[in-house]
Every structure is written in C-alpha cells, then in structure tokens.
Specification:
The protein is built from 15 helices and 15 strands. The chain is an alpha/beta fold. Helix 3 packs antiparallel against helix 12. It is globular and about 65 Å long. The termini are far apart.
Length: 466
C-alpha cells in the first residue's frame, strides 16, 4: 500500500489511476489537481494548507454548508442501527417513512407519492420510465417522446444524458437516444435579433414548442422536462409567464410536465421548491443535491396524484413495479435528509437565501455590471450567473467559449474563489451555501472583482476575444 505522506504522493496516485468526471483525459498527466483535506461552512482547505472560498456549494449541493456535525451524527447513529436497509417489496424503515411524510408536507399540493434513488441522473432516468408506464397503462403505447431544451442539464447517464441539451454530454457517447427531442431554452440574453420584448419572446418560445409537437405528432409526445432555473446551462431565470405559456401548450396535447429541481429544491431559490413560484405546474418533480446537502447520495421522484392514479390502476401481475436501486430508500440517507431539512427549517435558511441572494446579486451588479466584458448578470435566490460577451453592445458571444471559459476558470482559482462555469458559454455561476454571512458575501464580491480583472488581462494576452 502507498504511504500517503505528502500532497505530492497523492497527486501522483491520482494521476495514475483516477478518471475525474468532466475532465480532460488527454492532459490529465500534465496538470495537478486540487486535493481537499477539510471543509467548514463555505471554506475548503487543501492538503498543502491552501484555503479556498466556495461560492458554488460544491456542485450546487451543500445548502447548509460543510462540516455540520448534526448530519454526521444522524448518519452514524442510523448506520449503527440499520446499516444498509432497502425498501424493496414489503420492506421499509422508519427514517424513509418519516422522510416521505416530511417531503409530502412541503411539496406542491398535487404531489402524493415518492420513489427514491441515488442521484439526479437516476431520478430523471426514473421519470422517463414513469412516463412510459403511465402511457402504457393508459393504452397509449406510441406516446413516449420526451422534449427537453437546448442547454439544459438533466444528468449524464444514457437516458438523462440524452435529456441534457449540451453537446459535450453527447459527444463520443452516441447520444441522444431515440425518442428525446430538444427545443429552445428561455435565454433572453441570447434571444433572436428580431425579438425585443419579453412578452414576444415568451410567445415565440411557446409557438416553437407547439410547432415541434405538431411536427412529431401530438400522439407520440409524452412529456416535457425543464429546470425551473437552469444550473449548468447558464443560470437562466425564466421570463414572467414563460412556464404558464408552456403549460398551456402541454395541456392542449395531453403532455406531462417534469420539473427537474435537482438544483433548485430545498432552498436554493428561497423556497422548498421553485416550481410553484414560476407556475410550472409539474406532474413529476426530480430532486437530489439539496435533499441531503450532498452529504449522502440520495434522490427522489415526486409524483402527482394525476400520475399516481394511473400507475396504481395497472392490475397485470398485481401491478408489479419493476424498478428500483439497491440503495432506494436507504435508511442512512433518509436520516441524513431529515437532519438536513430540520436545519433548513430551524435556521430559516429559505428566507436567508432570499436576503443574502439579493445582496449578492446587487453587489455583483454594482461591482462589475458596467465592465466591458460583462454581458448579463441574472439570478434568483442564492443562485446567480455572470455571463461574459466578446462584444457587450451587440450581445456577441465568444467564438471559442471553451478556451475563453478556461481563462476565466484559471483566474478564479488564482484568487481561490470557487465558481461554476457554463457549458457552451463564458459564465461564472455563484450559488453559495445558504448559511453564508454578509461578510462572506462581501468577500465573494471582493474576490470576484479581482477575477474579472485577471480574466480581462488573460483574454487580452490570448487573442481569443476576436
């Protein structure tokens, strides 16, 4: 066994054997990785003692911040009591029953059932299967296509990766699979040049969706999936009336609405769920990340009464539901989720997300809104995005967003501030833990100002602005 007695040793072992998700394999041996040793609140410390401020809550996960002993205690106590207990067939456990009751108590009123999994990706896989079963039971075997949106991110498995509307997720994996379609994203900053106002844009998006459904045949389209506020696709907040207009189209053709709330649920936008505020009218909701603040793998598909009535109405083989994962309804995951939800509730973190998020959005706009490279600053609750343009006046994007985005990422790491990027665009996304203090918000803004200046210098030297 290797003696892990230095950061250098860890680096060598990492390079020799570990494939990092969403990383460049070709250059893996030529670059060092950042190896974390400790995490507390919004702060991360590396094995060589460097301290970083995490303005992204990991992968949009740690809503209650790092290092909460309450969750560690809940996991340890439940692990001793039940270890790995599944929820297949007639078996259950107290934490998963209590969690189900808690989730249904905070969910939109039409939600009546929950099925559990391990990640946002498998939750969206499960939604596809639920939609298929729903229409098979209704005697509509041709009604199976799912419509997603360009720039959406819904996961990276074969099915959820197909739902994702990001070329990087499809490249070299033969995705998307048949039966998955993509329409336009609500991206007002990148709207067609002939559209000037928000109402016209919403109408155009709804008409484009309607036209796609008509081309495919309404009797073949089963569901539409959308994040209430997009994450990896660009932190895109929907225009007023967008989801109501979309819902009108879906209702016209008997099409289900799936809300992917893997990022937005559990306080990220200042509410337990973002869907109701935007008028999504979801028939199915996917959640993960914030359900345990990333402390333990868990996901859930939340099912409306409308869909549940059909699923439970199937009688062949006594309505056997042939789906699930080894860790579906894991008792330790449920105990962690309950402790996490208790903290969100007890500490008023949903309300705090609105207050601190508004402060972050305002301060970033004040600090860099007039910068020649900053094209748009947008957000909702504790999630904001700063998008950079090659030409601000014309909203012209960079011709090589991957290369330019890499310069931005390097500038952020040099200032030891962790932000998220955006696929296919040059973006700095900030989604700090909901426990962030006012001083920490100000420190994020202070470092971000330096990042923008560094980025501008790197861009000028690179010749990539065009």
């Amino acid at each position: 066994m290797t003696e892990y007695n230095s950061n250098q040793t860890l680096q060598l072992v990492d390079k020799a054997g570990l494939i990092h998700p969403y990383s460049s394999l070709h250059s893996q041996m030529d670059r060092d990785v950042v190896i974390w040793d400790e995490a507390k609140g919004l702060w991360l410390t590396t094995t060589d003692g460097e301290r970083y401020l995490d303005a992204a809550a990991g992968l949009w996960c740690t809503n209650i911040g790092y290092g909460r002993k309450e969750l560690a205690d809940a996991a340890a106590s439940q692990m001793v009591r039940t270890s790995s207990i599944h929820s297949f067939a007639q078996f259950s456990n107290e934490p998963i029953v209590r969690l189900t009751e808690r989730l249904l108590g905070i969910a939109p009123d039409n939600i009546s059932r929950v099925v559990y999994g391990n990640s946002g990706s498998d939750a969206n896989d499960t939604q596809i299967k639920l939609v298929r079963r729903y229409n098979n039971v209704r005697g509509l075997p041709q009604k199976k296509k799912i419509i997603s949106r360009i720039s959406a991110y819904h996961g990276s498995t074969i099915a959820s990766g197909s739902l994702s509307g990001i070329p990087l997720v499809h490249r070299t994996f033969d995705l998307p699979i048949d039966g998955v379609l993509h329409t336009h994203m609500h991206d007002f900053h990148r709207r067609p040049a002939n559209i000037e106002d928000m109402n016209s844009y919403v109408r155009w998006l709804a008409d484009e969706l309607d036209a796609l459904i008509q081309r495919e045949g309404p009797d073949t389209v089963a569901a539409f999936i959308a994040e209430p506020v997009t994450g990896a696709g660009g932190v895109l907040v929907p225009p007023d009336g967008y989801f109501r207009a979309i819902r009108e189209v879906l209702d016209r053709y008997d099409i289900l609405m799936i809300a992917d709330e893997v990022i937005t649920a559990f306080g990220r936008t200042g509410a337990w769920f973002a869907s109701p505020e935007f008028g999504v009218g979801a028939d199915l909701i996917s959640v993960s990340k914030g359900i345990t603040s990333g402390y333990f793998p868990m996901s859930a598909c939340m099912i409306s009464q409308r869909v549940a009535d059909v699923l439970y109405g199937e009688t062949t083989d006594d309505g056997l539901f042939g789906h699930g994962f080894t860790a579906s309804g894991h008792s330790v995951a449920a105990a962690v989720a309950l402790a996490n939800i208790d903290i969100l509730d007890r500490e008023g973190l949903l309300a705090k997300a609105n207050v601190m998020g508004a402060l972050l959005l305002r301060r970033v706009r004040e600090a860099v809104g007039d910068h020649e490279l900053v094209g748009d600053i947008r957000g909702k609750g504790m999630i904001i995005g700063v998008e950079f343009d090659a030409d601000k006046a014309s909203r012209r994007p960079f011709s090589d967003p991957t290369a330019v985005g890499s310069l931005l990422s390097k500038a952020a790491l040099e200032e030891k501030l962790l932000v998220r990027g955006g696929h296919g665009r040059v973006l700095a996304a900030m989604a700090p833990a909901l426990v962030a203090t006012e001083d920490e918000i100000e420190e994020i803004v202070r470092r971000f100002i330096l990042i923008v200046d560094r980025f501008a210098e790197k861009l000028k030297a690179s010749g990539l602005r065009g």
